[in-house]
Design goal:
Length: 330
């Protein structure tokens, strides 16, 4: 594959709203030891990209300053020590950054094969959400078959993924969302009950079924004490974001008396080794779910790369359901 010296990318010109995203020409990066260079077909758009754009989520050291945490495409070059991939292989991959570009670098063991029968468009939406959901819901949260699992933001990229994977694991799934239409989608995806938080009290709903064994939450703020109330004794709360604020007053006596666990994590700053371990687990457990039709990404919309600002307006508005992608060079 002929790799040019320069490529089209989308840069964050300054911290701010979606219109600070602008096309630029930058050098194509070269793969170092253990890395691959991907000719990007599609790049997934995630809420953390919007956080980075607004100045609230800086890339880790040595990561590309360009936005974009996941992509699909074909291997364009391999660095020394890479044995699994060769030029031309179709892959989808978790990226440390830099997905909004014609070429992107990542560690070879953060890439996975395109699942059988899946398009590059859909596959671009898998890594960031699958890695986040599996590592928090299963590796950290310990979800098991038969447990009651509650996920907030049920129609988000994360929520639609968590509902399907939890259901495939044999859990009883509950979700919250901000409209009746969104709640219907959650139940179609496998939730036993979806609570419209504009109208109903999710803590009361969870108490009426015995409490949640595990909650995956991205909202935080006023949800924290309500999540604690929603948990069954010995229940676990895994926090993956704080869309409504990270500071809150909480009575920890209930945490102690009912033996609750409150934890959380964020994927991007973790070590390459930790991400490679998550990749291996995702390939081992989630790829077979895709193969047997138990999980597929819910697609909201697609924009050309140079319309990245429109994609960001869309992800920050309440209307979208599932994943948004940028079409780069399919
Ligand atoms: N920890 C990690 O490693 C990690 C990795 C990836 C993503 N995340 C986080 O997970 C969350 C979901 O990511 P995503 O890419 O799937 O995003 P997304 O599709 O934009 O979803 C955000 C969802 O949050 C719901 N929501 C509830 N309260 C909200 C509020 N106060 N403001 C805005 N939205 C609110 C919205 O649904 P309703 O309209 O139904 O409320 C929406 O579905 C984000 O917060 C993201 O930062 C964390």
């Amino acid at each position: 594959m002929n790799v040019p010296d320069a490529m089209l990318a989308i840069e964050i010109t300054q911290a701010g709203g979606p219109d600070v995203l602008a096309p630029c020409s930058v050098p194509v990066p070269l793969p170092g030891h253990g890395q691959i260079l991907i000719r990007v077909a599609y790049a997934g758009v995630n809420r953390p990209d919007a956080l980075q754009r607004s100045g609230a989520y800086n890339p880790p050291p040595n990561a590309s300053p360009l936005p974009g945490l996941e992509a699909s495409g074909h291997v364009a070059a391999v660095g020394s020590g890479v044995t699994r991939w060769k030029v031309g292989d179709a892959v989808c991959a978790l990226l440390p950054g830099g997905g909004y570009a014609e070429y992107a670098l990542t560690a070879a063991d953060h890439a996975l094969p395109i699942p059988e029968g899946m398009s590059l468009r859909e596959a671009a939406c898998l890594p960031e959400t699958c890695f986040t959901v599996w590592s928090n819901m299963v590796m950290r949260g310990g979800l098991k078959a038969g447990e009651r699992f509650l996920v907030h933001g049920g129609t988000s990229g994360i929520g639609t993924t968590a509902i399907q994977i939890a259901k495939a694991l044999g859990a009883r799934v509950f979700a919250t969302a901000g409209s009746d239409k969104k709640c219907s989608i959650c139940t179609e995806l496998g939730a036993e009950q979806a609570i419209n938080y504009q109208e109903g009290d999710f803590a009361a709903a969870m108490k009426s079924v015995g409490g949640a064994d595990l909650i995956l939450d991205m909202v935080g703020g006023p949800y924290l004490p309500r999540n604690v109330r929603s948990l069954a004794d010995d229940g676990r709360l895994v926090q993956i974001a704080f869309l409504s604020g990270a500071k809150v007053e909480l009575n920890f006596a209930e945490v102690m008396m009912r033996r609750l666990t409150i934890t959380g994590s964020t994927l991007r700053p973790q070590s390459d080794l930790a991400k490679a371990r998550i990749a291996a687990k995702v390939e081992q457990h989630v790829w077979p779910m895709i193969a047997r039709g138990a999980f597929k990404p819910v697609m909201d919309s697609e924009y050309p790369l140079d319309q990245a600002p429109a994609a960001h307006w869309r992800i920050e508005a309440p209307g979208h359901i599932g994943k948004i992608v940028l079409k780069v060079a399919p």
